[in-house]
Amino acid sequence: MIDPLIISAIANSLIMGLVALGFTLQYVTLRVPNLAHTTICFSSAYITLTFWLLGYNPYFGVFIGFLESSILTYLLYNFLNMLKARGLDDVSLMISTIGISMIIYGFANIYLDYLAYVFKTYTRTFTLANADFKLLGIPGVIYISLILFVFFLLFFNWLLSTKFGIQLRAIVEKPSLAEVHGVDVKRVVGIAWFIIGGIGGIAGSLWPLWFQCDPWLGPLMLTSIFAACALGGIKSILGSLFGGIFIGVSQVILLSVLSDLVGTWIISFKTLIPLIIASLVLLFLPEGIMGKIQKYRGG
Amino acid sequence: MSHLVSKKILAIFIIVLLVVGIGAYFVGQITVVKPSPVKPALSGEIPIGVLHSSASEEGYFQSAINIAFEDVNKWFNESGIPIKFVPLIENAEESTTKACEKLESLIARGCQVIIGPQWSTTSLAVKPIADERKVVLISPASGSPALSIAGDYFTRTIPPIDAWQLVDVAIAMGRGINVLVVVYSKDTFGETSIAALEKIAKEKGVVIYESFAYDPTAKDFTVECSKLVEKYKEAVSKFGWEKVGVEIIGAGGHCVPWLTAVEKFPELWKTASFVGPHVAGATDVIKYTGSAAAKSGFTSIGPYARSPLSLSLKTRHKERYGTECYTYGYAAYDAVWIAALSILAAQEYKGEKLIKVIPSISRVYMGASGYCAMNEAGDRIAMDFEIKMVKFINDTPSWVTIGYFDSSTQTITWVST
Fold first, then answer.
1. B73 to chain A, minimum CA–CA distance in Å?
2. Does ipTM come in above 0.85?
């Protein structure tokens, strides 16, 4: 049987990686950090809960979670575009995403109360780890998240080589130039946000199959995701994936190693780990690891 | 001639009588107090604030508070008292800064008494504002001894944490345990609880082999559980399996994630004693982590009252919400009643008056969580406890009562199951 620490590290890192990927992609396409991203992603955890409460396999929630998160993200994108058209600067747009995050948080609470009312159970805090299947003693969430992670890596690799992908890359480089060359920037970025949101939603829908969920989970995860993107390189897609994996693993394995070295007192400072990493990265490596590598390659 | 004199005297006499009579009438008007019809000092809608520490605490507490407000308003209506209490609900969202803002908001909307908060950390944060603004807090769950201050505006319908830890130590001793491995949440509640546990354990001859803190905001306790297993195994190798127990100190909302982590470590499935956060009878423990709870013999405590109100609340909560009333929900129910009865007794909705009335109301109030008498610091003096354990009953995890703790004798009466 595999050590639960390893399983926890794998689950944490894969989910973090997928969510961090979305955060970076949204940033590079719109140049605005979407601070509602984690709230939207983890809202799909309630879809998983709903299917489980209805008596279905919670993995059905993955597909609906993709749609729910995609639609919310797409609507947010259009909202931000509308505000941008009215002359709001990037900082104001970023702050408006905080407002959206709070609205979604409020609706999450309402929805969970509704589920509690209908299904006669507590829903504000839940975990569905017991509902997961096991294969060779390993929880299903590990297999599913690993498969999806590899799938999306390959998917993005393929997508970026298509016409759509080339247009997207052009927009990321220079939106104005891409527009001059006939690229419908709004449409391409809108589709990108739809897909990105969906991927985050898949990650969020898998979360309760190993970890605890509550309405505040989304806003709370923002620090870790930001740390992941900062570490990998805020403008690097591959970097954010790597950063998410690193942060996810460090929160489990690094913490365990540190507690062996310095004592169990360090365990209570668990949530400081991503903050410390983010601070160190911003101080000494502001372009992130991938940014440094690209700089080194570019000369 | 004499006839004329008599007539004159009679006329003068009548005039004098008239003057005196009329004068007396007017003087009487000034001095006589007319009885006026009795008007109630308070009437209409009175807002009572409810401040939750987090979304999960709101999920646990609000149902019992809803029933309390309905019961209170129904009683006032049936008694012909023209008052209706309206709950104004706010959530601190796990932030002490937001808690202070939400408290100010409730005060601005006319609340002079607030039910809550639950977490000791939140209570400590908002208490200075409540004291300054002379607004009463009645917490149904904050157990930190740091809140035991006479003359302030903080009261609670639970005894301070020492009373709860006394029960946990009594459970360990009752099971023959004299070594404990403890994990506690790194917040005011956890830190004051471990201090209380260490003090009581020392007095009773129980050794705390190892204790360490965990981050209460974490959503996964796998690492913490792995360390707990490590320390537990060390203790067992030194003292023997039958002498070592495990205790987790934390908010009720941490129970499900902890048991989720325990499920992953078979070493914790067969401890001699496994005592956790105070959530005896909680439905979500069975719903989400029933298997782990039953495997590990998860034991917890909660208020135990023999009052008809207790049974009534339990039954109605189950009928309406489909779940058992949360352990501390009984104390929350009583907090609402004490607030309402104090307002009625004070005949004025002002915190300054209410804080003087609440102790005397609490002394005569027998509620859903039992007899709620408070001391001069506003702390509930005593509470009896029910000890429950999760066991497999016909292959289904279920809460089973295994004992009762009597606060007056400080002993446990074990129930054979």
1. 22
2. yes
